[in-house]
Amino acid sequence: MAELHIIDHPLVQHKISLLRDKNTGTKEFRELVSEIAMFICYEATRDLPLKEIELETPLAVAKTKIISGRKLAFIPILRAGLGMVDGVTKLVPAAKIGHIGLFRDPATKESVQYYSKLPEDIAERDAIIVDPMLATGNSAVAAINLLKAEGAKNIKFMCVICSPEGVEAIKNAHPDVDIYAGVMDEGLNEDKYIVPGVGDAGDRIFGTK
Length: 209
Ligand code: URA
Fold this sequence. Notes:
Number of domains: 1
Shape: globular
Distance between the termini: 39 Å
CATH class: Alpha Beta
Strand content: 25-35%
CATH topology: Rossmann fold
Structural class: alpha/beta
Number of strands: 15
Bound molecules: uracil
Number of helices: 6
């Protein structure tokens, strides 16, 4: 069953509070999303396998560990997911980045795909989808569908704020996908925004409103 991991570290909670403030400007909002993404990624990569190696320190030979084997891809859902890429690639610089473009049909609130470009070897990579807001879950489920259709087997979903509805949608459609979030909010309003949330994350990251 899909597990929900809430990253309740005080630094994450503090930074999410700063994000929520309507007076937080674009520059600070963007920096905060990137920093929070880094913290959440730290937990989402906790199960990366290690192997032991030997090397020489200035004093002695050390048996020590490095990450072994598994290759990662981060998949931001356009456009707000782009705000998390900088933070996650600071932690895993060798990861490949795929992009999935989905927009929410304003009438039906359903996700419509308009773009997709994934690493050629996505089927051999662990894939972590990044999107700051898990609201209805429609985009998340559509992105996971697409990744699975391309052969990805090991998929995680990372967001800053999730709603109960979004978590339920992923759990129902993709019980094998774990979710990593900073916080779970109360729910969605009639426009399918997360409440209290942060408003439109894309607009706040890119300063478009
Ligand atoms: N997307 C956003 O940017 N904010 C929400 O609250 C929900 C979806």
